[in-house]
Design a protein that fits this description.
With 98 residues, the chain is of the alpha+beta class. It is 24% helix and 20% strand.
């Protein structure tokens, strides 16, 4: 498991407003070989690798605030910023219990 302290002094990149590192062999690397810092932080917090269906979000919506207490993950790609997010979870809840 990678520790964020290992990246001190490493070049960072701004990718769509997120902090990223060039780590082409990392399992979360995108096509250009970059890995988002918040995803590495989430793995460190969880103590395991993220699953492909897990998505990491920032509670305060500040893409530069990658502190552990500001990150949460979910199991799908519906954005928590989307007004449909709450209705999606309510619908799933109702369908599960009906």
């Amino acid at each position: 498991m990678l520790d964020l302290r290992e990246f001190e002094g490493l070049n960072t990149y701004d990718v769509n407003g997120y902090i990223a590192y060039y780590l082409p062999k990392h399992h979360l690397a995108n096509k250009s070989g970059k890995v988002y810092q918040h995803m590495i932080a989430a793995e460190q917090k969880l103590g395991r690798k993220l699953k492909p269906e897990e998505v990491v979000h920032h509670k305060d919506r500040n893409r530069y605030n990658n502190s552990f207490d500001n990150l949460f993950y979910q199991y799908n790609h519906i954005s928590y910023n989307n007004p449909l997010f709450l209705s999606y979870h309510i619908l799933n809840f109702l369908l599960y219990f009906l």
